[in-house]
Amino acid sequence: EFNEMFPRPSTTTTAGVFGSHKTLITNNGKTEYINGVKVKIYFSPYSSPMRTNTAIINEIKGNNQITGAQDKINFCHFSFSSDDIRESLLFAMQKGVSVCGVLDMTSADNNEEYVALRAAGAAVSFNTNVKSVTYKLHHKFAVIDPFTAKARVITGSHNWSESANEQNDENTVIIYSTGIAKLFYEEFQRLYSRAGPVTTYSKKAIENVAVYPSPA
């Protein structure tokens, strides 16, 4: 992948190729084992063996070869605008899978997906608390079924967007590891607890609440 994009002398016709002009499809969709851990590797934009968003959707929904999410999906994303991935999350929720997420407040692309997921009952929030709102939530990861034998992490530079899928040069790795999933799940919990579950796109989370008199 690097060699296809890296500029070379003019005698090398496949060098310095980016975006949808890339043709070396053998880079995409490989499976490697690193210290016994299964890792799938995808680059964008390619259509063979499949577009990256399709690979992500397969991990969420499942297919004949892949078991979809069974328990929970937790994600943090800077930009989420793929309706297809949103629909796969809604599909998983219909099967009883818990979906929680944190999105970046500064990316306007997130609003439509946020509204749809919240309307369906997903616990999705923005990073709008006072301490973090001046910074971008630039994570791009999802944890599927942490603390189970089917635990996996989807991460890389690839946002859940059509731009990442069809235009930008991006990478995605899917890591099948309970230990790695645990680390990413802990990072999700740190960010989600800091963001708070009560945010909306137009209102920051309330930082301090006093209830008086309080029966609790």
Describe the protein in words.
The protein is an alpha+beta fold. The chain has helices at 2-5, 52-61, 83-94, 110-119, 162-166, 178-195, and strands at 30-34, 37-44, 72-77, 98-103, 123-126, 140-144, 152-156, 170-176. It has an eight-stranded mixed sheet with strand order 1-2-8-7-6-3-4-5, with helices on both faces. β3, α3 and β4 form a beta-alpha-beta unit. The chain starts with a helix and ends in a 21-residue tail after the last helix.
Proportion in β-strands: 15-25%
**Overall 3D geometry?**
globular
Number of helices: 6
The major β-sheet equals: 8 strands, mixed
How many E-type strands?
8
Given as residue ranges, the uncertain stretches (5+ residues, pLDDT < 50) are none
Chain-averaged pLDDT: 87
Order of helices and strands: HEEHEHEHEEEHEH
| Radius of gyration from the alpha-carbon trace, in angstroms | 19 Å
Helical residue percent band: 25-40%
Secondary-structure class: alpha+beta
Distance between the termini: 58 Å
Order of strands, main sheet, comes to: 1-2-8-7-6-3-4-5
